[in-house]
Amino acid sequence: MKVVCDRAALQDAVSLISSVVPPRSSKPILQCVRMVATPGLLTLHGTDLDVGLRIGLDQVEVAEPGEVIVPADKVDEIVRACSDSSLTLEVRDNHLNIRGADAHFKLNIIDTSGDVDPWPDRDPAEGVTADCEIAGGVLRHLIERTIFAAAADHNVRYAIRGALYERKDRKVRFVATDGKRLAMADGAANSGKGESRCILPKKPLHLITRLVDDPDQPIRISIGQNSAVFAIGEGDRAGTSSPGAMLWTKLEEGTFPPYEDVVPRDLDKKITSNRDALSSAIRRAALLTNAESRGVRLCFGDNRLTLRSRSPEMGEAEINVDVAYDGDPIEVGFSPNYITDVLKVAETSDVIIELKTPQRPGIFRCGQDFTYVVMPLQV
Amino acid sequence: MSIRILPPLLVNQIAAGEVVERPASVVKELVENAVDAGATAIDIEIEEGGRELIRVTDDGSGIAADELVLALTAHATSKIARSEDLEGIATMGFRGEALASIASVSRVTLSSRPRGAEAGATLDTEGDQSGTPRPAGMGPGTRVVVRNLFFNTPARRRFLRSPQAEGTRVAETVRALALAHPGIGFRFLVDGRERLSVTASASLRERVRAVLGQDTDAGLLDVEAADGDLRLRGMIGTPDLARATARALHVVLNGRPIVDRVLQHALREGYRGLIEPAQWPLAVVWLEMDPRQVDVNVHPAKSEVRFHDPQRVHALVRRGVRSALGAEDLVPRLDLTRSTAPAGGGRMATGAPYRPAPPMPASRAGGRGPGAGPAPTPRERATGPSGFDYQAARHAMRAAAPSDLAFTTGASAGPDPGRDVAGDAWAAPTAAPSAAIQVHRMFIVTEDAEGLLVIDQHALHERVMFEQLRARILAGTLESQPFLVPEAIEAGAGEMEALESLQPLLRRIGIEAAPVGPRSVAVSAFPSLLVERGVSAAPFMQSLLARAAEAPIGDSEEALFEVLDMMACKAAVKAGDRLTPAEISSLLAQRESVERSSRCPHGRPTTLRLTIRDLERQFGRR
After folding, report:
1. Which of B31-35, B324-328, B345-349, B354-358 has the weakest average pLDDT?
2. Which residue segments constitute the domains of chain A, with CATH numbers given?
3. Residue A356 main-chain phi, psi, to 5 deg
4. Residue-averaged pLDDT of chain A
5. Average of pLDDT values for B440-455?
6. pTM of the prediction?
7. pLDDT (tens digit per residue) in A288-337
8. Which of A156, A180, A335 sits opposite B484 (nearest CB)?
9. pLDDT for position A204
10. Residue B251: pLDDT over 50
11. Is B528 part of the contact surface with chain A (CB cutoff 8 Å)?
12. Within a 10 A sphere around the Cβ of A304, how many other Cβ atoms?
C-alpha cells in the first residue's frame, strides 16, 4: 500500500476514528484503525463493536492499493503533530511508513495473517432499511438540543441513556430524559414515509454532530431491528468504499418512557424572559448553592423574577431580572444546572417559561420546535 | 411419690445451682463478701482452674468465732436487716445465700479473725456436716478455702470445663472485680504463679493498665460525664484497640461489675462510625448513681440490673464516650512492620489470649480498607471534656509560632524564629497540607506536622459526606428532586412491608416511594444530593428495602444514621476514580473540618500516618 494524502483531511478522519475506538480493550485490534487503499480512495475503519465508523477520503493519490491495521491513537498523534500539507503512507517491511517533508515514522503494524484477531468487520447495511433523508444541519440541531438531557451512562435504565428518534412522515422528533427533566426537539426531514421509532445511544449521536460539516449535506438514515446506519455523502453504498462517511450503531434496548404524558398541557402561567439575562442570573444565584442544597428559588410576579439561593455554610444570594409576567405570583425551586443546560442550547433570544404550581413540572420553550420540561425541587 | 419438705442441704444445693455455677462464680461471691467486709487487700488463689482449690483471703472486718457456723447458714447475713433495706442496697451481697450455697457443694474451711480480736478461729465443713470452730493463728481478716467443688454433685462437676477454661473464667471475673474496686489491692495466683498484682494505692490508669495489659496504655482516653447524681468516669480505648468480643468491655455500676445491654449499646453507639459494627470497644467505665434508681435484685448473680430510667443512663454514657473520642486525634499510625490488625493486650491470668480482630472486610462500595494500624498518637484536637478549648489554644499557638520551613512545602513558609524544633513539638504546617498526590486512583498521600499521611479517598469522602448529610438532616429534611418519570422497582413481600415502616424516615431524607402494585414500588423523588452525585434511585432503593426487610429499620436516630451511611457510601468517590488536584485539596480541607474524620462511617480508618520519627528510624537517621 502506498498513498499520498492531504494531511488536514486525514487528520479530521483519523481523529473521528480515534473517538470511536475504545480507550481500553482486551482486544488490541479494536484500538486500531484499518486503512484500505483502493484506486482514488483511502477508507478508514474503526469500531468498538457497538459503534462503527467508516470514512472514505478522496483527497488522496493511491500509488499502490493495499491495506494496513495500525494503532489509531498513534496515527492520530503523528498526523496531528505534523505540519506538512500532505503525508505519504506506505506499507513496507511490516511497517507503516509515514513520511512528511522532514520526518519519517516507521510504525509497527498489526499482522492479521497470523493467529491474532481478524478485523472485527461487520456489514453495516445488514438488517436495516432506508428510513429517511435529512439535512445534516437539521439532524445536528435536533441532537444538540436533546442529548444533554439523556441519563448518564451508568444509569441502569438503558432506554433513557440514549435519545428517542421518532419519525412520522417527514416530521422527525428527538426526545431525551434522565427522569428529572426532558428535552424534545422537532425538525423536518427531506423525505420519509410512514412511521419509525428507535433509541439511539449517545456516542454515535455525538459523532454525527462532528461528522456534519456542511449543514445542507443530506444524511440518509436506515434503521433495523437492532441497529441504525447514518450515511453522509456517498458513503452508504453497501459493502463498497466510497467518499463520505458511514456510521453504524447498535440501538439502545428497552422501552422509552411515554414522554407525551410527561409534558403538561394545562400550564396557566406564562413568563417571557430574555435568555441571556436569565442565564446570567441563574449562574450567579448558583454560586451560593452546594451539593446538598442545589436549589435556586425563582419568584415570579409583577414583571420581575427574583432568584434566591442559600447555603447554610456560605450565605445567600438574591438576583433580580425583568421579565414579562403579570399573573399571580409564584415561587418555585429548580436545580440551576437543569436550567443552564437548556439555556446553553437555546438559540432564541427569549425563552418562555410555563408554570402552574411549585410542585408541578414547568416548561421552558425556546422557539416553536423545542420544549424542555423540568421537575421543580422540593426544598 | 408423696410431697415432702426438702432437707436443708438439698435446698442449698438447689440454690447453689443459681449462685454457684462454676469456680468463677465462687470467686465472685467470695471476693464480694471480702469487699463488703471492708477489705483493702484481697488475695485470690486457684488450683486446677479452681476445681480443686479456691482460696480467698482478705484483711476485712472478719467474723467472730461464735458466728462462723451461722455464717454458713442459708439466709444468714449481716448486710441487711429489714425489707426496706432492699431499696437502697449499698453492699455487694445481701441474700445471705452465697456461703451456704458454696458450702453445700464443696469442702469449705472458713477461718476468720475479727479486727481487734486476740486470735482467729477456723471451721471445716463438708456438705451439711460442719465441725466446731477451733482456734487458729492468723492475721486479721477472713480466709475461705473451697476445695473439691461439686464433690457431692457429680452431675454438676461433669459440667465443669477443663481447668484451663475454668481458669480463664476465673481470671475474667477477677479482672472485672479488680476494675470494679479500684480502692482495693488485688493479687491473683494460678497454680502458684502470680497473674495479677495491683495495690490499693495504684491510680486508675495504672490499674486499668495492669488489668487490661500494658500495650493498651497509649490508647486509653479518659472519660468523664455527669448528669445530676449520675456520674460516669473511666477509660476507653481508641478505635484501634477495638476487639472482636465484649470481653474488654467493663462496666462497673456502684462498685458492682455488671453486664448490661443498655450500657453496652450506649458504649457502642458512642463509637458509632469509629469501629466496625461487629467490633467491641475496649472500655472500663465506672457509673455511680443513686442506688434507688437501679434495681440490682434481678438476677441471683447480680450481673444484670434494671435501670429506672435507662434512657438517661444511655444518653450520658453515649455523650461521655463521644466527647472523649471527639477530643482526640485518632489517626492510626502506619506500621511498616506489621500487616495485621493489632491483637491488642489484655492478656493475663491463664494466658488465654484475646482473639485478634477479624480481617477487614472489603468495603461495600469498592473503597478498600487497609489493615488497621496500631496505637495512635493521642493529641487533643477539639474542645476537651474539661471545657478547655484545645482547638482554639492550638490555633493560637500556631499563630504565635510560624511553621517550620524544613518540614513543609506549604504556603505558610514563614521565617524560622529559631525555635526548638526537637521532639513532638513541631507546629502543624498549615491547616490543609499543600502537597498531595493520588496514588493508584485509590489513595491520597500528603503530609502533616507529624509526618506522612496516607488517605483512603473513598473512606474519607464517605465520612465527609456522612457528616455533611448528618448536619444537614439534623437541621431539617434533605432537599428532594422529584421525578418527571418515576422509577419502578420490583420488591418482595417483606420489602413491601418494610417500605411502609420506612416511610417517615424516607420523608426526612427526601425520598418519595409508594407501592404501585403488589410487588412493585415507584420512586418519585430522590435527594438532590444523590441525583447530583449521579446515584441512581432504583438500585439505591432496592438495597435500602432489602436491608430494611432483613432487619426492621425504624425511625430512630440509629436507623437514620444507617441510611445516611448508605447514602454517603453511594455518593462518595470510589477507589478507581481519578481526582483532580482541586478535588484532592477540597477533600483534604474537609478532612480538617469534619468530625471523626479518622474513620469512615463503617469504622475503618480513613487515614494512616507515618511519622517523621518512623521514617528517620527506617532510614537509619536515628
Report:
1. B345-349
2. 2-108 (3.10.150.10), 128-237+245-260 (3.10.150.10), 263-374 (3.10.150.10)
3. -130, -60
4. 90
5. 88
6. 0.61
7. 887 667 789 999 999 999 999 988 778 899 999 999 998 999 999 999 99
8. A180
9. 95
10. yes
11. yes
12. 14
d(CA B287, CA B315): 13
Integer Cα distance of B202 and B40 in angstroms: 12
Question: Counting one residue from A and one from B, how many pairs have CB atoms under 8 Å apart?
Answer: 76
pLDDT for res B603: 79
A-chain residues within 8 Å CB-CB of B481?
180, 294, 335, 375, 377-378
Best of B467, B472, B477, B479 to disrupt the A interface by mutation (most A CBs within 10 Å)?
B479
What integer pLDDT is reported at residue B94 of this predicted model? 59
Amino acid identity at B471:
A
Q: How far is B414 from chain A (nearest CA, A)?
A: 29
Report the distance separating Cα A163 and Cα A174, nearest Å.
Answer: 6
Nearest residue in A to B533, CA atom: A291
CB contact under 8 A, A177 and B485: yes
pLDDT at A291: 66
Residues of B in contact with A160 (CB under 8 A): 485
Please write the tens of the pLDDT for every residue from B7-17.
777 777 766 66
Residues 6 or more apart in contact with residue A293 via CB below 8 angstroms: A310, A311, A312, A379, B472, B479, B528
Instruction: Judge: A155–B528 Cβ closer than 8 Å, yes or no.
Output: no
Q: What is the pLDDT of residue B482?
A: 92
Which of these, A371, A25, A55, A28, lies nearest to A210 by C-alpha position? Answer: A55
Tell me the pLDDT band of B86, cut-offs 50, 70 and 90. low
A182: nearest CB among B484, B510, B529 = B484
Is the ipTM of this structure higher than 0.85?
no
* Domains detected in chain B: 8-198 (3.30.565.10), 204-326 (3.30.230.10), 477-571 (3.30.1370.100)
Q: For residue A378, list chain B residues with Cβ-Cβ distance below 8 A.
A: 479-482, 510, 525
- pLDDT above 60: residue B382: no
Element (H, E) at B491: none
Q: Give the list of residues 6+ apart from residue B47 with CB closer than 8 angstroms, or none.
A: B53, B190, B191, B192
Q: Which three cell numbers stand for residue B485?
A: 418519570
Three-state DSSP at A324 gives strand
* Alpha carbon of A251: minimum distance to chain B alpha carbons (Å): 22
> Phi/psi at B254 (nearest 5 deg)?
45, 45
Q: Residue B351: left (phi > 0), alpha (psi -120 to 50), or beta?
A: left
State the Cα–Cα distance between residues A350 and A213, nearest whole angstrom.
Answer: 28
Candidate from A152, A179, A359 with C-beta closest to B484: A179
**A292/B529 touch (CB, cutoff 8 Å), yes or no:** yes
Chain A, nearest residue to B539 by Cα: A156
Contact state of A335 with B532 under an 8 Å Cβ cutoff: yes
Of residues A121 and B23, more confidently modeled: B23
Nearest C-alpha of chain A: how many angstroms from B448? 26
Q: Which amino acid is at A312?
A: P
Place of cell 420506612: B502
Determine contact, residues A363/A269, Cβ cutoff 8 Å.
Answer: no
Rounded to an integer, what distance in angstroms lies between the CA atom of residue B22 and that of residue A11?
87
Q: In the prediction, which pLDDT does A141 show? A: 95
Q: Which of A161, A259, A292 to mutate to test the interface with B (most CBs of B within 10 A)?
A: A292
Q: Which of A182, A292, A295 shows the shortest C-beta gap to B472?
A: A292
